[in-house]
Specification:
Layout lengths: L1 E12 L2 E12 L3 E5 L6 H7 L10 E9 L2 E2 L7 H7 E4 L10 H11 L5 H14 L3 H4 L12 H13 L5 E5 L7 H14 L4 E5 L3 H7 L2 E6 L2 E7 H6 L4 H7 L5
Parallel strand pairs: 3-8, 3-9, 6-7, 7-8
Antiparallel strand pairs: 1-2, 1-4, 4-5, 9-10
Helix pairs in contact: 3-4, 3-6, 4-6, 6-7
The structure holds adenosine-5'-triphosphate.
């Protein structure tokens, strides 16, 4: 099933056009990887999917982004509600300077949940889903900032899951992590896709090849090609994709 449908999307930072006529569909319960050289517009595109670009001054968008058939740029859209449905995890783990427990309950409390038992359950379920529960279950009241980088990133994933999103956007979630933490998060994403739809920006082509079902290749703000990941890496249709994945540039 198609969850996100982007049509003729253009994005301008002031006079500079960063995205040109993007058309892309994202399937449910799959991992879609966005790859391409630095500055090609991957992060900009990712931010358009939950309106994170709203907070950047002088940004203009044309075209449409539909999530579950709803145009997310229509004036009636409740942006806070939208971001509850479409969670985001960033490149550098950014836990709040609070306890592990309070990091997870922050979102649910913001949305009005106060029942202690329900909050406890959310903490346990989210940490289990993010494969962190066993490591932290006895130190839930300790500061999140005391965790390792890889644990902090899994905590940020758990925090995103705590408000029960339908879609997870991830902007290079492992680029600041060591290989063991990266492997743990990749394994985690494989498991999460049974429940969530995931769109991930990655600089690491092997990572895209390992974990994603579909891969979209961006170059200079243009979506050059999107296809099954195996096709993109073994038999791309466009010469520019082939040049990039074989390391001829970027
Ligand atoms: N907040 C901003 N204001 C103005 N221009 C921006 C802003 N963010 C990005 N850009 C420009 O838009 C273009 C695309 O940048 P973007 O960060 O989306 O690329 P990227 O592919 O994610 O790059 P990287 O892999 O280096 O993170 C670049 O030319 C960049 O300079």
């Amino acid at each position: 099933m198609r969850v996100i449908s982007v049509r003729e999307l253009n994005l301008f930072y002031g006079k500079q056009q960063a995205l040109h006529d993007i058309n892309l569909d994202v399937d449910s319960h799959a991992i879609t990887a966005l790859i391409g050289p630095s500055g090609c517009g991957k992060s900009t595109f990712l931010r358009t999917l939950n309106r994170m670009n709203d907070s950047i001054a002088h940004t203009k968008i044309t075209g449409s982004v539909k999530v579950f058939d709803e145009d997310i740029y229509s004036p009636q859209v409740d942006v806070e509600g939208l971001r509850k449905r479409i969670g985001m995890v960033f490149q550098h783990p950014n836990p709040f300077p609070k306890s592990i427990y309070d990091n997870i309950t922050y979102g649910p409390k913001l949305h009005g949940l106060t029942d202690r038992d329900q909050l406890d359950e959310i903490v346990e379920n989210s940490l289990k889903a993010a494969a962190l529960w066993e490591e932290v279950k006895d130190v839930l009241k300790k500061p999140a900032t005391g965790l390792s980088g890889g644990q902090q990133q899994r905590l940020c994933i758990a925090r995103a899951l705590a408000v029960q999103p339908q879609i997870l956007l991830m902007d290079e979630p492992t680029s600041a992590l060591d290989p063991i933490s990266t492997a743990k998060i990749e394994e985690l994403l494989e498991n999460l896709k049974a429940t969530y739809t995931i769109v991930i920006v990655t600089h690491n082509m092997q990572q895209a090849a390992r974990i994603s079902d579909k891969t979209a290749f961006f170059l200079n703000g243009v979506l050059v090609e999107v296809d099954e990941t195996s096709t993109i890496f073994q038999n791309p249709a466009d010469k520019r994709t082939e040049d990039y994945i074989t390391g001829r540039f970027g």
